[in-house]
Amino acid sequence: MAWAVDQDVMRKRLNKTLKHLLYIGHPTVDDPMLKLRLLAFNGTVMAVVSVCSLVLFVYLGFGYLDRLPSLIPWLIVFPFMMYLCHRGHFLLARVGFMVCAWGGIGVGVYLFGREGMVGLYCLPATFFPFVLFTGREWRWLSLFACGSLSLFAFVQLVHEIPAAYPLPRHLAETSAVIHTTAAFLMAVLPFTLLFFQSEFFYREILRKTEERVHAERMADLGRIAAGTAHEVNNPLTIVHFVLQLLEQDELLRHRPDRIERIHKAFEAIERIKTIVQRLLSLTQSPMDAYESIQLVDFPDFVKHLFGEHMRDAGIRFEILQQGLDHAVIYGQKGHILEILINLISNAMDAVKDGPNPWIQVSFRREAETFSVLVRDNGPGVPKEKVERIFAPFFTTKEIGKGTGLGLSSSRSIARHHGGDLACIPGPGGQFLLQLPLFYQPAQAVSAAS
User: Fold this and answer.
1) Alpha helices, H only, 282-381
2) Number of domains in the chain
3) Tens of pLDDT along 232-251?
4) Among 211, 234, 263, which residue terminates a domain?
5) CA–CA separation, 108 and 71 (whole Å)
6) Sheet hosting strand 358-365, strand order edge to edge
7) Is the Cβ–Cβ distance between 421 and 433 less than 8 Å?
8) CA–CA distance, 23 with 108 (Å, rounded to integer)
9) Residue 346 and which of 145, 262, 425, 448 are 20 to 30 A apart at CA?
């Protein structure tokens, strides 16, 4: 049992070490394309060091200690290239790697001749520039690819390359097997890396295409919503005016049942207006002016608006706040409050039929972010629906109970403020609203100017 535990610990440590080596220099690179090439570069350096170490052990096993000086320098130089990556000199490290590869091949051919099979490394050296350099670095790419190919042709076409330190037959055969196998694997490795690069960029292009299509659909929805709002609001205004006249009619004042129906008609009109307004907020920036808002206002608003309703519904309601004193956010107070109302209302609907219902709203101010986490002990959101619930008109409620626009408009408002609204999957419902404290939209800046 103890041996199995030790093996598991050693395997985890080994995986952690390999991951650390493969990701050396990643924090110094921002371009995802270069990050992928840096991953290939680190893997290549580790492969080269492994081959050199294997040959070194073969020499030690056969007792040829005089051959060690030809390998030890490369075991120092190639890891130094990873150190350059760690210091942020990725281009210098790649150029140095190719120069050292040329040097190693040349020294190997000079020492062991063609029979040592060292010249086969020219083939992967020809392919690796296409993995290590980008299209913008075509000069370096062309130089090293053509140079390695020329070196390969020279080694293969020269009639005789005498070995300065010829290997004994048994050692030459072992060395040839090692070098041939390593050269084959290192020739296959670039194609493998290029395949994964192509797959990565294909998925990236597909993702951006889907985002562009979604943006175009939302733009079309915005145009439809604007026209719909105009066409719907005009007759609603007339209906509202007629209902006001009926409400003031002397004959109807003595008919409470008719007055109640008129009030229900008013409520229906307000609901239609709310739906249209939410539909508009999906694609259009709200027109209200941005202002400085005290963060402590939000917990007070939530407490006064929902506290009594929670008590009447038997829901345990908890409000937490941290670091809100004397802190402000720049935004549209009414629309931010609309997000909170939507989130807490959804939480109430989620827990109303469950045992021991509770809802917790946490307000927190960090260095440059204001966050609100709304949690409940309802059924939660399945992982496969985490993003779908933000799609317009998608709802998990019964028909007639929800429009499917609340979360969509809330996320749209959050993004208009430079933040975002996310759903956290897991037990219970969890929605996280994050807004930057110092966000100022471009239209507000130009207006102020």
Assistant:
1) 297-313, 333-351
2) 2
3) 777 777 777 777 777 777 66
4) 211
5) 9
6) 316-322, 358-365, 369-376, 430-436, 420-423
7) yes
8) 30
9) 262
